[in-house]
Amino acid sequence: MHQKFSLVVSGSFRKFYAQIIKKIQEFEREGFIVLSPKVSKIVNPSEEFVLLESDNTTDIKALELEHLRAILNANALFLFNPDGYLGNSAIMETGYAIASKKPVFCLKEPNENVLRKFVTVASTKKMREILSGDGSASTQLFSDATISELQSYMKAMVLRRGFEKETPRDTLLLAVEEVGELAKALRKHHGIKIDHKSAENYPEISDEIADVFIYLLVLSNQLEIDLFQAFKTKEEKNNQRTWATK
Question: Cα–Cα 20 to 30 A to 230, which of 81, 112, 121, 139?
């Protein structure tokens, strides 16, 4: 059974949308999940920025930000460029993917020399081989990773490990279970009475804290919550409160 990887497809929707749809359908037949764009119909074929029936707004900035968020949550970006040319939006999206440590694949070698250094011409088979390889950019953890990058990493891991059907309720129950494991580890650490027959099997505190954090990242992804932004917003509220002291 193939591992599941998610992609975002970029390119000129105005020039190549019919071909892009066929490429998306090819990816889906091969077991890839295409996060953006959705298979739909163009409603403004004569205008520069293409709007689709599936779009929930006509705000160009909002739509582009939605596409960028999809890149952040995907395993890779695929550039549909049959003539080698990439427009300004696709170049910006490529830069965003590279900055987000995502591999970038393309149909043809880009006309622009610098871009060629950062992308890989690959078939769907080759893409899967690269994404499945140990240490691939889509699954590599960096010491300076941001919360958003960790959320993206866990989204990839959920797909890779086959847990994508779990619901937020499932995840919360598993997280609560891990909090219980953390409590057991803390009991052992502080010398509170434990079952000595099973003392060797008591979990390590660092492992259990990590497990709780992992489930928090997964739950945030399932609920489409930007965890860092939620933390920042909540701290702004907390800083307005008066805290009682002894």
Answer: 139
